[in-house]
Amino acid sequence: MDEEVDPGDENVNSVLAQESSELFDVLSCQSPTVIMRLCQMMPSGAGWNMGHLAPTSSSAAVTERIKAMLEYFRVASAADCRNFLQSMCILCENIPMRLESRLMSVAGYANNVRFPTLTDCSPLSPSEQQLIKRPRIDHWEQYIASVVSLMLRKWERLSEGLVREVQLENVWVSLRTTNRGRDRPDQTPGPADRGSRTPEPDGDFGSLESKVTLETFLQGCAGKVTVVAGQPGSGKTLLMSCLGQQWAHGLGPIPSSYLFVLLEFRQLNLISSPLSLSELLLRYYLPPKRGDNEKRAIVDYLLSNPEQSCWVLDGYDEFNSKLTRQEVQRKPLDPEKALPVADLISGLLNRQLLPGCTVLVTSRVRDVRDLEGISDKVGQLLGWDRYEIKEYVVNFFGVKGDSANRALGVQAADLLLSSRHLLAMSYLPALCNICCICLKHLLLEAETKLQPGDREEERGNETRKKATEKELKEGQIAGERRGGSQDITRDGTNGRAQLPPTPAQIPSTLTQVYLTVLGAFLSHHSGKKGNSDKAKTTKPPQSTVCRLIAQSQYQSELCELSQLAWRGLEENKVLFLKEDIPQDVLEFSVTTGLLSQVELRLEDGILVNAYCFIHLTIQEFLAALRIMTSNDVSDAQLRKRFSLKTRWMTKSDQRTVFTDSLHTFVCGLASQHCTAALLQMARASGGTGVQTWVQKRQALVLKLLKNLCHSNTLTGPKILELCHCVQESQDHQLAKEVVGTRPTLELRNIRLLPNDIDALAFVVNSVGDNGIGLDFGACSMELECLDVLPRCQYIHYLSFRSRKYGDKFAEKLSSILPELTTLRKLEFCGASLTATGAASLASALEKCPDINEINLSDNSLKDEGMQHIADIFTKLPRLASVMLSRNNSSLKAVDYLIGKMSSCLNIQHLHADAMKEVIVNFSQLSDMSSYKTKSEPTISLLNQKWSKPEMQKVAKSLACCPTLSVLDMSGGQWNVEILRTLTQFLPKFSVTNKIILNDSCSSVEGLVVLTGLLSNCPAVVELHISLQSSPEPVQVSIVFSGGREKPAGQTSKTLCLSCCGLLHIDLERVWRSLGTSCDLTVLDLSSNRLGNKGLRKLLDVLPHLSNIQEINASNNGVSMEGVVMLAGTLGSSNSLREIHISNGGREQVILKFCSDKSDDKQQLRMFRLNNSILLPSDVTTLCRRLVECRSHLELDLSHSSLEDEAIKNLLKVLPEMVSLQRLNVGNSISSITGALILVSCLTVSQRVTSVELRPQSEGFIHFDRVKTEHASCRLTHFSLDCNNLERLTEILEQGPPLFDLDLSSNQLKDEGVKCLMDSLPRLKITSFVNLSNNSLTQQGLLYVASTLCTCDNISGVEVSMGAEERCLIWFRHHRDSEKTLSIRESRLEREHLVRLAEISSNCPNLTKLEFKNNLLHSEWIEDFVKELNIGQRGCSVSIEECWIRAEKAIHLVSRCLELSSNIQTIKVDQTTLHLSLMKPTELMSVSLVDCALEGHQLASMWTIIQRCPSLTELDFSINSLGIEGAESLSSVLPSLPNLTSLSIVSKETCKAVAEKLSEALLQSTTVQCLNLSGHVISDTAAQTMTRMFPRLRSLNLSHCSWSPAEGLQLVTAALRQCVSLEGLCLDSVHLDENSRVCLAQALMNIHSIRRLKLNKIGTVMEPPEANSVLDLLHAMEGLKQMQEIELKGWRLADRAVEQMTRLFPVWTELRKISLSKTLNGDQSGDKLLGALISCSHLEELYLCGNGLGDLTAARMALVLPSMTHLTVLDISENTIGCEGSVSLSKAIICMKNLTKIQLTSVGTSELCAVASSLAHCPLIQDVGLGWNNCGDEVALELARVLPFCQKLNRIDLEANIVTVFGVDALVRALQSCPAVQLIKLWRNKVHPNEAHRLSLKDRRLNFSST
């Protein structure tokens, strides 16, 4: 404080004058009330008027009054001036302490102060004010003096034993600005890392602005919140104490008049109760020496002058609470109110308490984010550089000034600087101290080993140990401040020696460093106890630890200390009170230096001693030791603690005081190198089986690491952390797994240190020759990191992306690039590289011959830099691409690159887009030297700003270039002169493909310039120009011949001038530019303005275009006049073949020519006029001109408007158009009248073969060359009424005979159908009439059915009124007189059935009636049967209804038999009743098959059956007869004297049924045909059957089950006696080897067999080579009457196949053979087919599943044509190829009787030939092509042949790859194929929505699996 000055008149006024400026500032901040009181001290004569200063006065008025007041008292009397100053000190707030002290001193203590009052203010006593304020200032100054003493004492304690002096001007800080707008600076984290991120110490939490000293950084911090961030061990606490010491000495940035309050957050954590601000200061920080008055005065002064206090809050990262930023307006807090300590700190930071005070906060970098929006300035403490580290190490060893120590210090410094992991630790002062302790221990131990007996050395060692004790204390001081989650930097080895030979062995990992440090501390304690145990041999550093731990005096203490460390880690605790630590452990820990003592003030203000580890990493390391050596830490606890940290933390992450190094140490301790130390430590814990337990725990850690290695969700920082952990483990296999799934390691926006690169190297070097990439994006990286980068031996890809990387970085990178021998790709993008840096990189890249990709985009190379890079092109033989985009270059650089193409012949592509993109691609020399055809290089010069000189320069360079494939010069600025300049040089260019000049030409003048190239430059073969293609740019391309010369007369050239706005007068300029010798083949003049005149000029020049092939004149405004003009040209030009016109010529106009100019009338010509409005006169004129065309003609008028008059005019000319082959009027006919007019062409022209018309859909009229015999008429989807039908039938009666008449979907209804039926006898129709989808009712159905009686030539009627309405009338072929009637889903009533019975009775030729799902009742059916009167020919009736089952079926059968005496056979099969009627007849057969019949239901039938003595057949198969049914049947069998056939196929397992039946059959001697398939045959039944077998002619025992003995008895005893047996079926019976031998013997005795079925018995027991199989085949040689043979599943061997082939010549009457899954490949099939040629009567052939191939198919082509009776062919599940498919098709062509062919899964999708061959099979009904991957081509071929297959009803295309395109074709074909009932399309490439649409279009398409 300034000394007081005696008051004096002159002195008072002069002081006021000197301080007037600061007084003005103070007064300007006061309230209007204070100003008013002070102004009232001036007399009224001074010009003061009280009304001039109101509370609402403007600031300018107040300012003027203050100035006037100060000016008045400056010259006033001394007394007035003194009174004014006294009053001001009393009334004013926030007067700076210095100023207030001076004013009070000069004003004195006068008692005559005149203090004015106002009516609204209370009067104040000057004496009271003076008495209060003066003592307050005195107490304040005294308290500051006490704080000064406190700071000096604190510094004296902390600075004891410092190696180097702490000076704020030598500490560097980086200024940073907080990135408030970006929550995630690191771009690598994935979705799992949610929330905003705060950087850890290695990361940048803001942008780096500058680097200043800490002293400079703190300048101007008064009144602000300043944050100093730093890593744990960076000395934040020490620096804050130094700041306090400087303040105490009146130095530094904090004014000495301020109150300096230094609070440590770790001590604030102990305050649990709320307290006020005054309590925090006066009770907890520094209690005052006097009483409450002093406290009150201090607090009052502090609250009145908060700007005079500085609050230093040290170690926010250790604070247990978390501060939050207040987004809303801050509300002042009451300083006297007790609040939680967190609220008090928040109040200080948010200016809610002591606004204007200075606040300085220290924290770790990661926690700075909590202070965003609060802090005014943030700085980060920078680590030491190498010079500072070396200086510290030398000073550490040379504290005593001993020369030996200094030499040792130099050696230690060299070792440290050469060891990457020690150097990385030493950037932080505290860790540097630990490294020095480690090195000193190693070096002293090494010296001891070298001179073990030197007593002087021992004394030196003792001296050094004593010095070490003091250094340990310094280490405790340097590391006293404990940090939060900071990661200690690590290092490791990569398989190479890192240090020169030295006596000391440097640890190879961070964990081993800490093991060595632990050994140093233990050794220090050992020295104190006098132990002198020395190693006799050289051992690794951890061996010392093992030795020291093994000593008994350390074991228990060290174990308890590690337990203390672990407990602190679990409880997030770093400070331990004395009572927390056992006394012996405390003494041990303090003696060794592992624990340090700190002073702690408790909540009650009492000072106590507390203890903490010398650094947080020491505590974490000891905790890791506990984890790895004690079973009191469970595996679950280890897993919980084991997780990788990211350098960016989420706000939701739990705060911790520790550095997150625990998992790193755990990984290091899992290394085999640490196993010995762990075992010693574990044994010290007193456990048993420690070796197994320790190894198990190490294995668990490695397993956790392995899981992380395989994780695919790790971010860049976590991957880097994983590399550190793997490096610590020294496990090379783990390193391989890290990079196994990561071809590139991406690191983004994190700060990298050399030890990070070294960790990467350890991992990268495990990848081997596979190589790996490193991608550094916006990472802060010191140049020293690049020194370490060459340790990564297998880098293939290296990328640097950041503006942080400039020329210096590039220069440094250049120095190490040649060492990266495996580097293939280098990226240096988005950086600050200039030509200087480019030169450095170029010189380095020359030494990297294997480099193949370089990317230097987004820099500032300019032309010079790009030239540096271009100069190395020829020196890098493997270069593939170079990217130089966005480098501020010009055309000069591009021209230089073009010039390089002459010397660097492997440049493949040069791309330059307005200098924004510059890319050079290269071809490999291996490609150039190979025999492959090398593609020519290309150049793209896009969007350039051309001038004539620049064009000339670049064009000259291009002319010197080697041959180019493509030259693209699109975009940019062009004019005609520049274009002409280019065309002058263009003939000199060597271009094989094309030149692209988009946006280069904008006028017809430029177009003409370019057109001349076709004649002036022989190499140019195509020119494409489009000037008006908006919004697209102007399109210009010049195509070259490719260097391939063609013979004369074969040159083809194309000129495309579309969208150029050409008029007819412009064509002359174009023709002149082209010249007379133009060889144009394609001319495109579309989208111009030529009109009819231009079209005429074009047609006039046609004779000169001798090679023309196509002319496009679309969109040229041509009218109908031009269309007629073109029609005339079609007849006059020999070469013109097709004309395509749309919209009357206004849109499409395309002319196509052929090279053959001969006048061949057989060549088809087409005139297509679509989408046009055709007037009648236009049609007449057009057709008259087309009459002149004598060649075959197709006229397409589809999608046009044809009125009725126009159609009539067309028909008038039609007879004269003798060359017309097809007329297309699709989508042109909309009215029924017009359609009928067109149908009348059948009467106008005798050449018409078919008329197909559909409104607004396809419509064709086909013509034959001569008069046709049969025509086809299809008129669908019109609305025909009776009048229309009458007109139609009149036309059809006059026309030729019709093959078919399709009137489906015409809404005819019943009336229309009746009209047609009445006319039907007069029509000449040979195939069918289709009346489907015409809304018929049951009455219309009867009309149609009646035609069976009225028309003799009708062979059948099909009607279905279900979802698919179907009505077909079939006409007979080949004079067949039989007729059929089929009615389905028609909801018939009783009267309908009666009427149908009448119709059927009146039709004597009706032979077949079918009723299916018509909802008929039983009574109705009975009436129908009763009314039905059948003629002599007989008739079959089938009625299917779902209710015909069980009792109802029996009842219906009984009633039918009662009502009709004409029933010959009656059968119920499932739900269908079958009747065979004949007149006269007797009942011959009764069958009830698979109709849910039960035995007790049969009784009602027997009465009727017994009255039918002629009954010869009974069939009750597949029912549930049971024993009751068997007994019932047995009772009736004797009453049937003529019964010869009995079939009872069983699905039961009751033996009694077979026994009962066998007994009854024994009595029924007339039964000759027996089917007992599926029965369980007992011994009793077998014995009974054997007595009956001799009389049997047919026996079926398939699927029967019996014992081997029973089966043998049946076969041997019974079958041998069946000498008359004609049919034998033993499918799937269980015959053993002996039974089959006996069967063979039996067959040799039976020569009458015609049908033999032995399916699936060949592989039941033995392999096919078994002799029994051969015996069976040999036995068949005598069966010469064989007609059917089935041997499915036998799998015959070669010998058996040969035996089988010898049988075929014997079986000349063979009709059916099934050898599925019997043969063994293609060779067997070939032999078999060769032998089958003798079976000329064969009708059915089954060969599926035999592995047949092309060889067998080729044999089929030779054999099958001779089998003219073949109706069924099944060769599914074979492996026939494409050739076999062709061979098979040749065979099918000759199979005229084929009805069914199955080619499912035959091994090829090439079945087009097979599908095509079906057209030659008129009887084909069923085709299976499923599961072959057939595509649309097969579907299209099937659609083509469908009209030729009139009987085809089923096609299987399941599991193919047919698309909607193919199915649509099938739908179209189905329109003319009414017989087709089903096409299966499941599992094809048709979307469900499309499948639904197509199914609605035609319900015969089935896309489901059922």
From TrEMBL:
One of its GO terms (molecular function) is ATP binding. The keyword ATP-binding applies. Residues 224-364 form the NACHT domain. SUPFAM superfamilies: P-loop containing nucleoside triphosphate hydrolases, RNI-like. Residues 179-205, 452-503 are annotated as: Disordered. It comes from the Eukaryota. Residues 452-490 have a biased composition (Basic and acidic residues). GO terms for biological process: positive regulation of MHC class I biosynthetic process; positive regulation of MHC class II biosynthetic process; positive regulation of transcription by RNA polymerase II. Keywords: ATP-binding, Leucine-rich repeat, Nucleotide-binding, Repeat. Gene3D superfamilies: 1.10.533.20, P-loop containing nucleotide triphosphate hydrolases, Ribonuclease Inhibitor. The keyword ATP-binding applies. Pfam families: LRR_6 (PF13516), NACHT (PF05729), NLRC4_HD2 (PF17776). This is LOW QUALITY PROTEIN: NLR family, CARD domain containing 5. It comes from Lates calcarifer. The gene is nlrc5.
